[in-house]
Recover the amino acids of this structure.
């Protein structure tokens, strides 16, 4: 198994490039299954989740070709024969459940395993299933699989209100209804940039979707969609993560540039909170410049659906607040138990207390390097951020979580002046103990 070893106390300088959005790329890959020929997607990050979903699509007989160097991926659905997504692959990544909407939209039937997914928080799929039924699908459960069918091969359409609003359910329902026989309306739809870019791709393919970027999507089904070449958006969560890294480990008064970025996708809540810390933030057309503050001011936040503060950045924000000049509080209103990083941060000397869906953080606490364990994707990167400002070495174990969502992280940080390396280790090796009497 791999781990990252970070030597703390070094200054982050120069430029950090932002990769393509993982979450948007997965939705775009699913959309590619609806075209009449091969769809080419550009700016696709080379990540574990991308390769996992490519394998999920491949099970159906559709062909996926990915060039990880050029970051170009092609989906050819013309050879699709088996409308199924097996448990062995779906359990590794919840976004594989997009196959339900994609296969219903493509061939009018689907057999998709119920997903596994991250180690925290219930994220039930009943919202997806009730939406499919509202649009005319028959849905049954069969030994851990969802079996869905559209009457006559195409959904009739209908109206469904998402309660709560959900990115995954919005994407799944759009996939299923863009080729429906009639019209569909999705109320309280998600408005995250992931959804907007995904809908833009489908519209380029000929889908008729109105209200993109609003809470109500009106969809008029079409009989077929054409293949396209489409460029994926940059990753807003990676951008926010690197902005926090620059504020934490940058030299006060010096600029760190984040290139290939789309600052408009961050959302107002995050940028406002970031500015309140005292950090400098200057957006450009495809970049962001950050200046670390002389002193990080404490800023309490509450997560919310977009354009609120992203739950995917609260673990990283926790680390930033450990270095603030006072105490702060984080409330996660999206996933109530997303605090598995806190016990690991406490091993590094952080004083943070979890009460329900809140965590209270004491600022200006020295962080010490330690061996810490990744538990999920965003928790993993928060431990790397802590390692940037820790005294001594930090060993972040089980970074397969990290490899799901951050492309080439250690090389990007190393190029910006951080001593960081990837090492193999044996998870189950017995420790080597040294006792004074052995000397």
């Amino acid at each position: 198994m791999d781990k990252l070893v970070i030597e703390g106390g070094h200054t982050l300088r120069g430029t950090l490039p932002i990769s393509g959005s993982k979450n948007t790329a997965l939705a775009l890959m699913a959309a590619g299954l609806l075209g009449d020929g091969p769809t080419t997607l550009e700016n696709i990050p080379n990540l574990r989740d991308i390769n996992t979903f490519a394998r999920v699509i491949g099970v159906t007989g559709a062909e996926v070709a990915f060039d990880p160097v050029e970051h170009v991926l092609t989906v050819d659905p013309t050879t699709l024969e088996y409308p199924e997504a097996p448990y062995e692959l779906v359990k590794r990544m919840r976004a594989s459940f997009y196959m339900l909407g994609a296969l219903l939209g493509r061939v009018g039937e689907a057999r998709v395993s119920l997903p596994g997914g991250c180690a925290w928080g219930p994220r039930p799929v009943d919202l997806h299933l009730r939406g499919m039924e509202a649009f005319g699908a028959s849905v049954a459960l069969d030994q851990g699989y969802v079996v869905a069918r559209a009457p006559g091969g195409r959904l009739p359409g209908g109206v469904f209100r998402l309660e709560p609003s959900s990115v995954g359910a919005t994407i799944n329902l759009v996939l299923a209804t863009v080729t429906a026989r009639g019209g569909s309306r999705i109320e309280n739809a998600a408005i995250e940039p992931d959804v907007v870019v995904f809908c833009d791709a489908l519209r380029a393919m000929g889908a008729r979707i109105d209200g993109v970027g609003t809470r109500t999507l009106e969809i008029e089904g079409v009989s077929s969609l054409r293949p396209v070449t489409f460029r994926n958006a940059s990753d807003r969560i990676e951008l926010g993560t690197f902005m926090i890294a620059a504020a934490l480990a940058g030299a006060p008064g010096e600029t760190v540039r984040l290139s290939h970025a789309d600052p408009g996708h961050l959302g107002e809540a995050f940028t406002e909170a970031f500015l309140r810390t005292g950090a400098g933030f200057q957006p450009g057309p495809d970049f962001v410049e950050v200046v670390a503050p002389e002193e990080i001011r404490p800023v309490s936040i509450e997560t919310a659906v977009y354009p609120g503060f992203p739950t995917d950045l609260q673990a990283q924000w926790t680390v930033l607040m450990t270095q603030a000049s006072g105490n702060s509080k984080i409330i996660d209103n999206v996933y109530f138990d997303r605090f598995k990083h806190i016990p690991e941060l406490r091993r590094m000397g952080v004083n943070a207390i979890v009460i329900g869906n809140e965590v209270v953080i004491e600022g200006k606490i020295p962080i010490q390097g330690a061996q810490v364990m990744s538990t999920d994707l965003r928790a993993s990167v928060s431990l790397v951020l802590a390692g940037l400002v820790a005294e001594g070495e930090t060993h972040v174990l089980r970074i397969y979580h990290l490899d799901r969502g951050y492309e080439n992280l250690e090389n990007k940080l190393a190029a910006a002046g951080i001593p960081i390396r990837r090492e193999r280790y044996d998870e189950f090796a017995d420790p080597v103990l040294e006792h004074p009497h052995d000397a």
User: Anything to note?
Assistant: The radius of gyration is 22 Å.
